[in-house]
Amino acid sequence: LTSTTKYCNSEMASESETAADEFPDVLKSDKCTYLKGEKLGAGSFGEVFYYKTQDTFKKVAVKFMDKTDGRDELKILNKIRVFDPDENCLVRVLEHFEYKSTMCVLFEKLDQTVSSFAMNRKKPYDVCELRPVAQQLMVALKALKSIGVVHCDIKPNNIMLVDQQSSPYKVKLIDFGLARKKSKLTCQSRIQVLGYKAPEAVFGCPMDEGVDMWSVGCVLASFILKKGIRVKNFFNFNKKSEGSKYTFKTADEYMPLPIEYSKEDESDFEEFKSLLKQMLNVDPTKRITPEEALNHSFITMSHLSSRTDDSYVKEAQQFMSVCQPTTSVETDAHKTDGKTVCGQNTKVNSTPTSVQDSAVPPVKKTTKKKTLCHDPVSTYKHTVA
């Protein structure tokens, strides 16, 4: 018994030393020194910890990955770095470097996942609250589409609130571990998780960026229902003597689920359902695109244009204020012009000029740089005027 106990203790000590070696208390890059904080999470592609810069104590998220997986993800991250991460709702990459046998990628610190926020407050989202989330995800998908990148793993845990206190419902898309170029998506590609997996991914059909749109539709539906999405709910199962058969359910075959909403926002809920149905079109060739979704009336709020003094509309307009383009400042090891600078304030990279502005006209012409971010609040005001 004594020898067995010693052996177990030795094994535990060895594992502890290995963990400490893989995730050091002090992590150094060429520019900065980071001090280890709490663990954030782990997945099939790595583990994530909070670290803070030694000089300013600014928190960052550090993802430790196998070098091979890390290089693949880094190729995608380098592609998206051409975009302004704040205006295009994508996580900001700060820097990356190798540490022993692992690849370390540093990201900005964000607040919490949208699913954590919903669970903590113990009630589903209102359509009024989901609108800015949907709009920002469409902006992110439009950006990715413009450079031929498909995320392939959109789910509640990969959508994070930036700072719910100071910027309610401002979100960013994170975790590009499964992302790949559209040209490399094949019928055999193993992407997405059950519950957010597009039909074409389930059946091994040709795929494109439309798989991400399906996942966003599933996320929005799960939040409004406060129920998880299950693939089995999409099918009818008929067992016959000659074998088993699965067929897609029609809209009429789903069990009606009563959702409480006030009469004043009934038209808003109908527009939300209209957008959701187009996101969840089983035929990927007929599924709504990010550009089309950004011009849908649920996002632009054109159906609310006559209710100028309505408190519901004013609240909806306030929620959408986070979707307006903003200019932010990079600090503490943020990237600028392909280089990493620690502890300096420098402006972010601008959106490439090849990406076109929103099709929705602004209220007034400005000299702002082009971005992929729509301004639905200005659109609403323009419609009212």
UniProtKB/TrEMBL annotation:
ATP binds at K63. It holds the Pfam family Pkinase. Coiled coil: none annotated. Residues 34-299 form the Protein kinase domain. GO terms for cellular component: cytoplasm; PML body. One of its GO terms (molecular function) is SMAD binding. The keyword Lipid biosynthesis does not apply. Residues 344-363 are annotated as: Disordered. The keyword Transcription regulation does not apply. InterPro entries: Kinase-like_dom_sf, Prot_kinase_dom, Protein_kinase_ATP_BS, Ser/Thr_kinase_AS, Ser_Thr_dual-spec_kinase. GO terms for biological process: intrinsic apoptotic signaling pathway in response to DNA damage by p53 class mediator; positive regulation of transcription by RNA polymerase II; smoothened signaling pathway. Residues 344-357 have a biased composition (Polar residues). Keywords: ATP-binding, Kinase, Nucleotide-binding, Serine/threonine-protein kinase, Transferase. PANTHER family: DUAL SPECIFICITY PROTEIN KINASE (PTHR24058), HOMEODOMAIN-INTERACTING PROTEIN KINASE 2 (PTHR24058:SF53). Belongs to the protein kinase superfamily. This is Protein kinase domain-containing protein. It comes from Oryzias melastigma.
